[in-house]
# Entry
Amino acid sequence: MIKLKEKIGYGFGDMASSMFWKLFGSYLMIFYTDVFGLPAAVVGTMFLITRVWDSAFDPIVGVVADRTHSRWGKFRPYLLILAIPFAVIGILTFTTPNLTDTGRVIYAYITYSLMMMVYSAINVPYASLLGVMSADPKERNTLSTYRMTFAYIGSFIALLLFMPMVNSFSVGHNETYGWTMSVVIIAIMCAVLFYGCFAWTKERVTPMNKQQSPLKEDLKDLLRNRPWWILLGAGVAALVFNSIRDGATVYYFKYFIVEESYATISLFGVSFVLSGLYLATGQIANIIGVVLAAPVSNRIGKKATYMGAMVLATVLSVIFYWFGKGDLTLIFTFQILISICAGSIFPLLWSMYADCADYSELRTGNRATGLVFSSSSMSQKFGWAIGSALTGWLLAYFGFKANAVQSAEAIHGIKMFLSFLPAIGTVLSVLFISMYPLSESKMKEITSELNIKRSKSANGD
# Structure
């Protein structure tokens, strides 16, 4: 039985990752277009190129992690070694050096590519920890719940406080200084959280075959793993849904709602803007979805829970298009409902990836936890790559002009980013997950057989 302290420690890891991930998803596009001064189409192309490469980099990290042997285990050492590089490169990504137009593009490509690579190098091993902390599928559901709860707490903190910090640090300096210093604060918090995750977690599950199989065999086993392919497709589609909504939110409030025309809300001397409150509200609602995921899925199954949440998110997203700029109550209400749906699916995905690793081990006798879990990070990156690239390209297509009054066509496009376009992702995700074959009864059989084989292997039988 895993103790509460270890569950919290595991949650710290994704709390750190999610702080930066949400900054990338919600603010990096508008940082590049409105602060750094890059054209939207250039940013969209950069996101696609760098994230497609980085998606391919994730399995490499998984393979290396599977072959790591240390006194701290296979996966935990990466949390210890990479916490500081993660923080430093994150700061550089949001730094604005005085360069030519071409120099800014090159700088953005280099820093963002490095950030995504170090993100993979720490996040793939972190995700893989779930597969070796416990062999019990229900306990993995619980660990996934802690993970995602802390992830959304981290996202909530980052999204709620980031723009107020930018505004505060900008006083007496300039906007670029405000952005950089705000990221410094977030980066320090992330490094501390990664160290906490390293210190409070433990690796327990060992494979039946203690001798690592050849890479060629691991890859062959993975490519024959049908449930893995299904989760990969569902994960990519779900992240397209999330990335399009998050990436366009600040544009929606800046250019359609015109949040500057509304009074800011002050609390404890801190002034909050509507877009920040909207995003932070979504994170709180995500946590509700995460908390509901385990009890609901334990009752009706992971697959049914996932499909129900995504179908409801599709309907709500489509309705969202018809809200006017004065319908703030409805806008925030639907943000809560859609975010509850979105929050509930990700702990299920992480738990199902662990099930895929068990399924593969039973079929082949080999366990490549890092390689299997790298697909989760790969789908995350690839989904964001597609969603972010589409956001940049379509902003240009609809005639978006940074820091200017938008045309009717541009406003129509910005509204589409929070309604019909993300709904395409939810529909595709439902289609993929409808084919997922590892039911709860099937996993009970797999877990039972694996426990018997592991016991025989440990006794030398």
